[in-house]
From TrEMBL:
Xref: Pfam families: AraC_binding (PF02311), HTH_18 (PF12833)
Name the record gives this protein: Helix-turn-helix domain-containing protein
Keywords on record: DNA-binding, Transcription, Transcription regulation
Domain of life according to the entry: Bacteria
Annotated source species: Paenibacillus phytohabitans
Residue span, HTH araC/xylS-type domain: 182-279
SUPFAM superfamilies: Homeodomain-like, Regulatory protein AraC
């Protein structure tokens, strides 16, 4: 399949979202998290893939996996379009198809956040994957009888391929994030319960706040403020899913103001924290 002149488009059917094509920017340009799991297949261009404390220069056939707690973004290094195929899905959709010996969600769950997200696909497997993905997108776009069932079967086949690929090709790829920024991110991760301002982080690391801010933006394409905010929201989602109250979650995830926590959580996730806890 060639996508040299295709624009990026997405097809959504309830619990499954699939997108294929190219454009200079991603639909979400900043750091983000979402409740869907995501399979990101890179097909061409010049980009870095960022997830949590890691950033990787991508090559054709690279597959990045994101679960629902990992902060990520794609950084386009040129004004030219880049080609990709993305699939999002909600994990509960797949639970009934996991067995004692085949956990179709293992590649998303059995690792630390931001670690071992990258796998590599050779051209023969890439062709097979693209065929299945095209069938998935066609089923999502169809209104014919059984199309939603067909879409689910294609997604399951894709997850079998991805998990096998992940177990075979995943490796500890050196990140292009510098030690200074990794140290800042580690500090943030370990102190989410605090009020983490730029001044506070720079002071704890004994670096100039303007230098830290510039270096962070240069290497990640985003701001420390946005990174801290999403890290706190990711933690709050985990706390709510574990059964913590909204007030306890507000305190444990480092939000000093209850009303601000409610507002921020809803702005980022689309629902109030009280409803999120009941939904999880």
């Amino acid at each position: 399949m060639t996508m040299k002149h295709a624009r990026y488009h997405q097809t959504f059917n309830g619990d499954i979202l699939a997108g294929i094509g190219n454009s200079p920017i991603s639909p979400t340009r900043d750091f983000h998290i979402h409740d869907h799991y995501e399979i990101f297949l890179f097909l061409g261009g010049s980009v870095n893939g960022f997830v949590d404390q890691y950033s990787y220069p991508l090559e054709r056939g690279n597959v990045l996996l994101f679960n629902n707690h990992e902060i990520h973004k794609i950084i386009n290094l040129s004004p030219e379009p880049y080609e990709r195929l993305t699939i999002h899905f909600k994990a509960p959709l797949i639970y009934p198809f996991c067995t004692a010996t085949t956990n179709l969600l293992a590649c998303f769950q059995n690792r630390q956040p931001g670690e071992h997200n990258l796998a590599r696909m050779d051209e023969p497997l890439l062709t097979e994957y693209m065929t299945l993905a095209s069938l998935l997108i066609a089923a999502l776009e169809s209104e014919q009888y059984g199309s939603e069932v067909l879409a689910l079967t294609y997604l399951i086949q894709i997850l079998v391929i991805v998990n096998e690929l992940y177990s075979r090709t995943r490796s500890a790829v050196p990140s292009i994030i510098s030690s200074h920024i990794q140290l800042a991110m580690s500090y943030i991760d370990n102190h989410l319960h605090l009020n983490l301002s730029l001044e506070h982080i720079a002071g704890e690391l004994n670096v100039n706040k303007y230098y830290l801010s510039h270096l962070f933006k240069q290497q990640t394409g985003g701001t420390i403020y946005r990174y801290v905010l999403l890290k706190k929201i990711a933690l709050s989602k985990q706390l709510l899913a574990a059964g913590n109250s909204v007030s306890d979650t507000c305190y444990l995830s480092g939000f000093n103001d209850y009303a601000n926590f409610i507002r921020t959580f809803k702005n980022i996730t689309g629902i109030p924290p009280g409803k999120y806890g009941k939904k999880s």
